Amino acid sequence: MTQQNSHALVAYFSMEIGLNPLMPTYSGGLGVLAGDTIRSAADLGVPMVGVTLLHRRGYFYQRLDQKGWQSEEPVAWAVNDFAEPMEPRVSVEIEGRAVHVRAWRHHVTGMSGHTVPVYLLDTDLPENSPWDRTITDTLYGGDSHYRLCQEMILGFGGFALLRALGYGNIFRYHLNEGHAALLVLALIEAAIGTEPRNGEVPPEVIEQVREQCVFTTHTPVPAGHDQFPVELAHRVLGSRRCELVQACQHQGALNMTLLALRGSRFVNGVAMRHGEVSHSLYPGYPIHSITNGVHAVTWAAPSFQNLYDRHLPDWRYDQLSLRYAISIPGAEIWRAHQDAKLALVDEVNRQTNAGFDRDVLTIGFARRATAYKRGTLVFHDVERLRRLLKEAGPIQFVFAGKAHPQDQAGKDMIHRIHSMRGQLSVAYLANYDMMLARLLCAGVDVWLNTPLPPMEASGTSGMKAAMNGVPSVSVLDGWWVEGHIEGVTGWSIGEKIEACGSPAEDMEACHARALYDKLEQRVMPCFYKDREGFIEIMKHAIAVNGAFFNTQRMVGQYLRNAYRLVGQDVNGA
Ligand SMILES: *Cc1c(COP(=O)(O)O)cnc(C)c1O
C-alpha cells in the first residue's frame, strides 16, 4: 500500500442523486441508482465523495386532475434541514462571464459508520445575476441552453469545488452518464492551462485524463444521448474550450457520450445486454457491463427486514446471505408479504378510493411515463383482458410515474391509463417518488415491465420488487435477460426479443398477446390455485435475484474492474 493510495478517493459525479426520500434531488432510475451506489459505498467503507447539483426546486411535484391530466409544480424544500453550506466559493466561466458556485454538504453514513460526503452545487448567490442564480434550480428543466449551463456547473464547478475543499487526492473520477462529461474537459484544462492551443490536446494529456476517468453509460439509443448544437456549445463554452472537444462533434452537435467515451479508460453499460448494445453503437470503444443493483436495506419493506433479521442475521452486511432465503418457511414469507401488501392496499384506497382488496392478485407498474416503457400495453386489447378476468379471476392494477413536462406522449399515456378506472380495477397514484416506490415494489404480488426492446438499459424497480420476494412478469430486456428463469424467478412476456416481429406496432400487439397468455396460463393459476408454488417463486426471487441484483455486489465490481481500488486500503486508515 502506497502513501498516495491509502487516501485514494473516488469522486462520483451525477446530475441527479436520490439521497433521501425527502430531498427532491432526483427524477427517477438514474438518480435512485446513484443514491443506492453511494449508500453501498458507505456500507463498504469505500473512500468516495459525491458531486451533484442542489436542485432547489427539485424535478417537479406531479398533480393529476380528475381526468388524469398531469400538471407540474416546483418542489419546495428546506435545504438546510438536509445539508450544511460550505465556505469555499469557485467560479465557472459561462458565456464569457464568471458564474459563482458554492456547495452544500450532505453526509451518507454506512452500516459501520463510514461516511461519504456528497456536495450539492448551488449558484443561488447574491454575486450572480438573477438568471445565473437559477441555474441549479430545476433538474432537467428549461431548454438545452439551461441544461448545458447546468452541465458546465457540474463538470467545471464540481471539479473546482473539490479542489477548493482540499481534495487534492482524487484517484478516479466516475462519470455517471454523459451529463458529467464536461468534467473530462475540466481535467484537460487543468493539465494544459488556459493558453490558446490551436485546438490541440497533447496525446499524453488525454492519456493522463483517461487513466483517471470511469464512465457509465445508461441509454441504449442514440436519441437518448445528451448532445448540444455546436453553435450553442460555442456560445456557452467559448471557442477555446470548444476547439479542444472538436473531435466529439457528431452531426453538428457536441455529443456528451463521445466526450465521456474519449476521456475514460473504463466504460460500462448497466446490464449485460446494454453493454453489448452500447458497443454496437460505438464500435471503436470497448464497453464492459456492470449490471445495476439496488441498496438492499433501503428497498426491503419493514416486514421483510424483520424476516431477514430473524432468518439471515448477516444480510445487512452481506447480501450474499439472501441466497439462503430458500430455507425460510413459506408461511413466514407469505405473512411478511401480506403485511407489505396491506400497507399498499390501504394507501391506494386512501389516496384514490379504488376499493382494492388484499386477497385479489395485484399487479404493479411504476416508471417514467414515456412512450418506450409502454405503460398502456396491458390495455392493448381490453376485450381480451375482460374475458381473461372473467375466466381466470380478478386482477387489480396499480400504476404510478411522472411524464417529463415536455413529453406529451407520456402525459397522454397517464391519461389513458387513468381513464381505464371506469371499466377495470385500476388506480394511478400521483407523484411517484422513492417513498411510493418502497410501498409499491414491496406491496404488489407481481411487478410488470413492458419496455420496447432494446430500449430498457437495465431497469431497477423489478430488483426492488425481488428484494421483497415479488416476481416480475417482463419483456426480456434490460436486467431481466439475466434475472429471468421461467417459472422460477418470474415469467417472461414473449420468448425472445427477436420472436416478436419488428415494426413497433406489430411488436406491441405481439407482446400484448404474449402477456395475456402468460397471465392466463401461468401467473393467475399459480397465484389463485397453487399458493405453495407461488411462494416458491417468491423465495427464488429473493435467493437468486435479491442476492445478486444489489448495489453491494455492483460496487464490488466497480472497485475491482473500474476503479482498480481492490488490494488498496479502502478504509483509508
Ligand atoms: C427505482 C425507481 C425508478 C426506476 O425504475 P425503473 O425500473 O428503472 O423504471 C424510478 N423512479 C423511482 C422513484 C424509483 O424509486
Explain how this protein is built.
- It is a single chain.
- It is built from 20 helices and 21 strands.
- The chain is an alpha/beta fold and 573 residues long.
- The chain has two domains: 3-60 and 69-293 and 554-562, Rossmann fold (3-Layer(aba) Sandwich), CATH 3.40.50.2000; 296-549, Glycogen Phosphorylase B (Rossmann fold).
- Helix 12 crosses helix 15 (434-443).
- It starts with a helix and ends in a 10-residue tail after the last helix.
- Residues 1-6 have low confidence and may be disordered.
- The protein binds pyridoxal-5'-phosphate (PLP).
- Pyridoxal-5'-phosphate binds at residues 28-29, 32, 367, 432-434, 437, 459-461, 464.
List the helices and strands and how they pair.
Blueprint: H1 3-6, E1 9-14, H2 29-43, E2 48-53, E3 61-64, E4 70-73, E5 84-85, E6 90-94, E7 97-109, E8 115-122, H3 144-164, E9 170-176, H4 182-192, H5 203-212, E10 213-216, E11 227-229, H6 230-237, H7 239-244, E12 249-250, E13 253-255, H8 256-262, E14 266-269, H9 272-281, E15 288-289, H10 296-299, H11 302-311, H12 330-352, E16 361-366, H13 382-392, E17 395-400, H14 408-418, E18 426-429, H15 434-443, E19 446-449, H16 461-466, E20 472-475, H17 480-483, E21 490-493, H18 504-529, H19 531-546, H20 551-563
The chain binds pyridoxal-5'-phosphate.
Descriptive key words:
573 residues; alpha/beta; Rossmann fold; 2 domains; ten-stranded mixed β-sheet; six-stranded parallel β-sheet; 20 helices; globular; disordered N terminus; binds pyridoxal-5'-phosphate
